[in-house]
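Quick one: co-fold with flavin-adenine dinucleotide.
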Amino acid sequence: MAGSFLQTSRLLLQSCSGTPSFHVCKLHMTSSMAAKEHYKVLVVGGGSGGISMSARMKRKVGAGNVAVIEPSEKHYYQPLWTLVGAGAKSISSSERSTSSVIPSGVKWIRSRVQEFNPDKNCVRTDKGSEISYEYLIVALGLQLHYEKIKGLPEGFKYPKIGSNYSVQTVDKTWNALKNFKEGNAIFTFPNTPVKCAGAPQKIMYLSDAYLRKTGKRAKANIIYNTSLPVLFGIKKYADSLWKIVKSRDLNVNFRHNLIEVRPDKQEAVFEKLDNPGETVVFEYEMLHVTPPMGPPDVLKRSSLADEAGWLDVDKDILQHKKYPNVFGIGDCTNLPTAKTAAAVAAQSAVLDRTISNVMKNKQPDKKYDGYTSCPLVTSYNTVILAEFDYTGQPLETFPIDQSKERMIMYYMKASLMPQIYWHGLLKGFWGGPGPYRKIMHLGLK
Ligand SMILES: Cc1cc2nc3c(=O)[nH]c(=O)nc-3n(C[C@H](O)[C@H](O)[C@H](O)COP(=O)(O)OP(=O)(O)OC[C@H]3O[C@@H](n4cnc5c(N)ncnc54)[C@H](O)[C@@H]3O)c2cc1C
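Sure, here it is.
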């Protein structure tokens, strides 16, 4: 009897890191202290995927049993930043307070996770708290690495340079474009996976349109320097983009990777990836930087990561390959599809079902097909709506050829999608356009 009591006490006092502590990490605790530290569902990251899943989990297990760990006071609808960088939307229209998007009753833990301990079902935050869970949803997004380009991020203090990828630098893109006089306007794509792989070139098409509108286009040489060997990964849409590139006199250089910015001289240095050791220097009047990206450091150093550092999940059901009570969604995962909010939406519906089944000790039965989408903004009123799946085949919602530039798609991107995001995805009601696609294709897709 005494032995068992001592054992229980030891368990109660076992900390996340395995050392004795007064924080309680074990499951199914009953003391009031344990109740504060333990959640049935713990969501890490309060971005698109994290908020959407916490809304869905609230409906499943009740608000009091769900917590979200998110350090930022602000939540952003990042897809709008393409338009913010081109002066078509304000940054404030992409922003809400985090407190307003956390589902009511769900606990918001305003911290940064510093350590995962999936063998003990708990995490440790930068404030030193240890929080345990029965089910963990990892939705950390990805990490931007401006510092991997020599001269950045401090180079952003100079004018003529911007980046739509960060809330701190997106306005600088618009400043550089507004103040363009004459010379090279250069747009880059790094040598890493990125989120929204179309965004690095969308701002090029918008800049071209702006310079035409303001009568400066004749004095501009527009250049897209990309690390990739293709303009876009899906041929159907790449073919359309090539026609635009040619008709608008845009220059594309493949396998050019930005490695240094000399903002005082307005010079950008690129390595030629197919000729190791060879570099080329471009002068610029405007430079849009898409930074190298990678998995969050905290994930990379944990046992949840695959060899490349991304969250190692099953591509069909989004459950962790080694820890069955851990799940993932969004940019931080190793799902072999393009990283977008549209993908997050489709994933959220599948993950909801997977977790439901796991909670009932049933086999997951709904599969994610890799659906993702990229509205390729090609001017201030046109979009090519790319939609595709794991196979790289188009998976289009509408029964029309979506590889054509269309005004209706622009209005969808600029006006309708933000509403679907705030009122559908973040509330856990929007699981992607799958059901509508079926209806529009008379059940054939
Ligand atoms: C310029 C641009 C244009 C885009 N255009 C489109 C588009 O047109 N269509 C589209 O579908 N998608 C687009 N996207 C991509 C889309 O925004 C992302 O794919 C989507 O937001 C991913 O959601 P997520 O939840 O995985 O990550 P995020 O929404 O980035 O959320 C991650 C969250 O984790 C938090 N976090 C980070 N570290 C920690 C930690 N240690 N502890 C706790 N929390 C942490 C962060 O603060 C953040 O809130 C675009 C993105 C950009 C930048």
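If it helps, The first strand starts at residue 38 and ends at 44.
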